[in-house]
Design brief:
18% strand, 8-stranded mixed beta sheet, repeat, 25 helices, Herpes Virus-1, protease, globular, alpha+beta, metal-binding, Cathepsin B, Chain A
Length: 810
């Protein structure tokens, strides 16, 4: 039977994709095989899902779909004489690997890709060439549409890019509209510039008032200029200068305002340049922008060097457990968390060892199945298939990026970020927030299965003692990480830090900068952080059920259980007084082994008298200033946090409330639902919950009882989508209440309080909005650095500069 005849029985199952149809032609939905893999990629002409060679037969057996488009892509190096330098692209986004951002491949060799196609009929993999005039019309139309369509991954990338923050969004200078320009007859040539006070020909700035060309400030490494431009401003007061070499034909350039001490926008730049005879149509970008220079300097000095171990020639590692992850445009926060997640046996068993069961029981669209995509990621990281050493390559060549491609987790990222205001974009995000988002998503998708995140879960005990009645109340909450404050006031090197800060301030006042390779950071012992966490605090506006009024209470916090794996979160990120997000540049001494017995909760003690339970009608809800509340929400803060800010500042206005937010923005429960202190949300003291009746109706139509629906909606704040998942993952609690038993609360693993450090995640940069994440993992007896797709043996793991630390119980 000919190949064309083999197609005939399957013509009724072949579909032509419509405009809204997702086509997975870049990567297998179950593995990281791509058209560039030796065996290519098989795209179903029925479902338009892509499969690698290891999974296409499984799909055929499960679905009966026999016809696939086989795509094979070969990578060929472009001959050097054809590469050329091309025009240098102006960087407009503080992002990596996205349109307008920094291109990590710009300095690599250039390649071109050649694709070949064929139609394959299973189970015997009979191949039909493409194109072919003998193909039935339905097959031809289906294949043509697949080839011409945008892939699902490309569409997801474009959607994320639409929300990417533009790193060059600058304020318009207050001097731009009425800038003084002297009629001194000065005309600026289009090239061959030189500082008017020295011989420098790089880093030159044109003052837009008098046309003087002077060198800029000296950089960290001694390069740059001799400060002649800033000295000229101090002498004349002429505020705006444009960096020569950054001017483009569209009228864009780096403009600095000395008066405003920042990079600014000058909407009248074309006119201002024309005053000195500069025709922008003739200008070409020949110098690096300040954003590019800042990135270069950050990567050469200080924290960036230490955390990436950039000063060492690190030995690359390959094989199972040593697979890197491609940075999908500022996705390093996700990459680091997922590398650490798959160190833990609970996740390995759930998603790697049991992956066959997950794949066999998948939904019709595995690309949209959280369990499938998590299992795919875990397999890709741990099986070693995508981490092979380059054949017959020297050690020097093995260090190059192009020989360590890593795997690209774009399906996982698109799925876990879908609909999320932060993680659906290509902006840099907080790794700690992503960890909690991953845990929440995992809980919603665990259903009847054991939830591997239980290895992180622990109970926190908050003990309140009423200041007037001296009676006590114990409240418990569930946490997945331990947030520790950083008490700068107990640094062990205060004198050195004070002297360094004085030198730094003096240098900045002179327009200079200290050598960044010599940094004096405050040094804090971890014990000091633990002590600060456990210190008692006074809680204002505490509702005392013994007095039936608000008063103050003394609160102490301890751990009621110790998890198998403890994630410590150092609270390094905060806000300056001007609302600019910053990171505390500190070194915290993190021990390899840790005993947390001092944090062990004791529970109710003999002789303590408990505060009585609230009976009858709950206390009236607090009255909050709605105008201040609206102003805070409009600033972008979580509504629940805004309620707390207004409540705890006694409705005294916007400024006290914003100050409260600044002081508490790092709290682990910052955005949790607001409950006045002293009111237990699990008792009758909680304001009566009113379920959304439309939501109740929708859930009961799924086959659940009204009691189950109300309970689920109460636990998920009337969120229908989450409520259905909640019912599946809390079956024990529901069954107990349905049978009249006592409600079953969350269960916690508990054990000894001694731990060993096995991984840590570091952040380099000034805030969570910018910068880069890397992680170090203790694997096979040695520390390994995972810097996106670069995996290497660590020579000097910077344990004191981390952000998140994973400890395993001994």
């Amino acid at each position: 039977m000919s190949a064309i005849e083999l197609l005939t029985p399957h013509l009724n199952s072949i579909n032509i994709p419509g405009n809204s149809q997702k086509i997975y032609k870049d990567e297998c939905v179950f593995s990281f095989d791509t058209p560039e893999t030796d065996t290519g990629l098989y795209v179903s002409l029925n479902s338009f899902l892509g499969f690698g060679r290891d999974y296409v037969e499984r799909n055929y057996r499960k679905t009966g779909n026999a016809v696939y488009l086989h795509i094979r892509r070969e990578k060929k190096e472009v001959p050097s004489e054809q590469q050329g330098d091309g025009p240098e692209k102006k960087i407009t986004r503080l992002a990596i690997g996205v349109e307008g951002g920094f291109d990590p491949d710009s300095c690599k060799k250039k390649f071109e890709y050649v694709e070949s196609y064929s139609i394959v009929v299973l189970p015997d993999f009979v191949s039909v060439p493409w194109p072919s005039s003998q193909l039935p019309k339905i097959v031809h139309s289906s294949v043509q549409a697949i080839i011409e369509a945008q892939s699902a991954s490309k569409l997801a990338e474009l959607e994320a890019l639409a929300e990417t923050w533009d790193g060059e969004a600058r304020v318009i200078s207050k001097h731009a509209e009425n800038l003084l320009q002297l009629d001194n007859g000065k005309k600026i040539p289009p090239c061959n510039w030189k500082c008017e006070q020295c011989d420098l020909t790089q880093n030159l700035w044109l003052n837009l008032t008098d046309g003087s060309i002077l060198c800029g400030r000296k950089f960290y490494d001694g390069s740059g200029g001799n400060d002649h431009a800033v000295e000229h401003y101090r002498a004349t007061g002429y505020p705006l200068a444009v960096k020569l070499g950054t001017i483009t034909k569209d009228g864009k350039a780096d403009v600095f305002s000395y008066d405003e001490d920042d990079m600014v926008e000058d909407p009248n730049l074309i006119v201002h340049l024309a005053h000195f005879g500069i025709n922008i149509a003739q200008m070409e970008k020949t110098d690096k922008s300040m954003v590019e220079l800042e990135l270069d300097l950050n990567q050469k000095f200080g924290e960036w060097v230490a955390l990436q171990e950039a000063g060492s020639q690190l030995k690359p590692l390959y094989g199972p457990g040593y697979t890197g992850l491609v940075n999908l445009g500022n996705s390093c926060y996700m990459n680091s968390i997922m590398q650490v997640i798959f160190v833990i046996p609970d996740f390995v068993k759930r998603f790697v060892e049991d992956s066959a069961d997950i794949f066999d029981s998948t939904s019709p669209d595995p690309a949209s199945d959280f369990n499938v995509q998590t299992a795919k990621l875990g397999l890709g990281l741990l099986n070693g298939k995508y981490s092979q050493p380059p054949a017959e390559a020297s050690e020097a060549k093995q260090i190059t990026d192009e020989l360590q491609p890593g795997i690209s987790p774009h399906m996982f990222k698109a799925l876990i970020g879908k609909g999320h205001p932060l993680f659906s974009t290509k902006r840099q995000q907080d790794a700690q927030e992503f960890f909690l988002h991953f845990i929440n998503t995992l809980e919603r998708n665990s259903r009847h299965q054991n939830n591997p995140s239980d290895c992180f879960k622990f109970s926190v005990e908050d003990r309140f003692q009423c200041s007037k009645s001296k009676k006590v109340k114990y409240m418990y909450r569930t946490e997945y990480s331990l947030p520790l404050p950083i008490p700068l006031e107990v640094a062990i090197n205060k004198e050195e830090v004070t002297a360094y800060e004085a030198l730094k301030a003096d240098a900045e006042s002179k327009g200079q900068r200290l050598d960044p390779s010599v940094v004096v950071r405050p040094k804090i012992k971890l014990f000091s952080c633990l002590e600060a966490f456990s210190q008692p605090e006074i809680v204002e506006h505490f509702y005392s059920s013994a007095l039936n009024e608000k008063t103050t209470a003394r609160k102490t916090t301890r751990l009621a259980s110790f998890p198998d794996y403890l994630l410590i979160h150092l609270k390094k990120f905060t806000l300056r007084e001007d609302w600019v997000p910053i990171k505390l540049d500190v070194a915290v001494e993190m021990p390899d082994e840790l005993d947390l017995s001092l944090l062990r909760a004791t529970g109710p003690q003999p002789g303590e008298e408990p505060l009585p339970e609230i009976t009858g009608a709950p206390p009236p809800p607090p009255v909050l200033d709605q105008e201040v509340l609206k102003q805070l929400v409009d600033m972008g803060f979580p509504p629940e946090a805004c309620k707390k800010a207004v409540y705890f500042t006694d409705n005294k206005g916007l400024e006290p409330a914003t100050n409260w937010i600044m002081d508490h923005i790092g709290d682990s429960d910052f955005a949790n639902p607001f409950v006045p202190p002293g009111i237990d949300c699990k008792t009758g003291g909680m304001s009566n919950f009113i379920p959304n009746e439309e939501a109740v109706s929708m859930i009961t139509m799924m086959g659940f009882t009204r009691v189950q629906a109300v309970q689920a909606l109460k636990a998920t704040n009337n969120n229908v989508e989450r409520a259905a998942d909640w019912i599946f993952s809390h079956q024990a609690e529901i069954d107990s209440e349905d049978t009249g038993g006592a409600a079953v609360g969350p269960t916690f693993r508990d054990g000894e309080s001694r731990y060993r450090l096995i991984a840590f995640i570091s952040h380099m940069g000034t805030s969570t909005m910018v910068g880069h994440y890397v992680c170090h993992i203790l694997r096979d007896g040695h520390w390994v650095i995972y810097n996106d797709n670069k995996v290497a043996l660590s020579e000097n793991p910077p344990k004191e500069l981390g952000y998140l630390y994973l400890y395993q119980r001994l």
